[in-house]
Amino acid sequence: MHDLMIESELLCKTFRRRNQETIGVSDVNLQVRSGEFLVIKGKSGAGKSTLLNLLCGLIRPTSGKIWINSRCITDMGNAELSHLLSTQAGIIFQNFNLLPTYSLYENMEVGLVAANGNRAIQRELIMNSLAQFNLDGMAQRLPSELSIGQQQKAAIARTLVKEPTIIFADEPTGSVDDDTAREIIAYLHSLNVEKNITLVVTTHGLFPTNEKTRVMQMHEGRLR
Question: Deepest of 30, 64, 68, 150, by most Cβ within 10 A of its Cβ?
Answer without folding.
Answer: 68
